[in-house]
Amino acid sequence: MAPGLRGAAVLVTLALLPPEGKAAADAAKGRAVFRAHCIQCHGEKADGRGPLAARFNPPPANIAATTRGDDYLLQIVRRGGEAMGRSSAMPRWELELSGDEILDVVAYLRQVVKENRQRAAATAPAPGGKS
Predict the structure, then answer these.
(1) Do residues 83 and 73 make contact, with C-beta atoms less than 8 angstroms apart?
(2) H or E segment at 80?
(3) With contact defined as beta carbons under 8 Å apart, do 106 and 30 qualify?
(4) DSSP letter (8 states) at residue 51
(5) DSSP per-residue codes, 105-123
(6) Can you tell me the distance from the alpha carbon of 128 to that of 60, in angstroms, rounded to the nearest whole number?
(7) Is the pLDDT of residue 53 over 70?
């Protein structure tokens, strides 16, 4: 695909992602896809601590703590780790998953990141070091 067309395809695909408030149904489907395809490496909590994680160097990413946006998540799930300058062990899921399944996974990962940030904020010490 030509570079200009690739960017346009990403924008069109991102436009299909459900908005924050409407992600619940898609996130539920994405959770099922994640559990079927990603949990062995990325773990139950998407923290990079799955049962197979120790076999990889570098280890799987802690997705729950990522600061990357939807575009990056979409691209790494679609194209795999090597295409994104990461581990070649991360497969190109576009070869196995449908476009809708990939969008659902990204919606689920967005939810995981949001929940992780909320937990971290709730357990953070109060300003001034007092709890």
Answers:
(1) no
(2) none
(3) yes
(4) T
(5) HHHHHHHHHHHHHHHHHHH
(6) 35
(7) yes
What is the Cα–Cα distance from 41 to 53, expressed in whole angstroms?
5
pLDDT above 90 coverage of the chain, percent: 73
Residue pair 56/88 in contact by the 8 Å Cβ criterion? no
Q: Could you give the dihedral angle defined by the CA atoms of residues 81, 82, 84 and 90, in that order, rounded to the nearest 10 degrees?
A: 0
CB 50 within 8 A of CB 37: no
Q: What is the dihedral of CA 18, 102, 13, 90, to 10 degrees?
A: 130
Task: Give the H or E element holding residue 17.
Answer: none
For the chain, how many residues are written? 131
Whose tokens are 């795999």? That residue is: 80
Q: Six-digit token pair at 103?
A: 């969008």
* Total-model pTM: 0.77
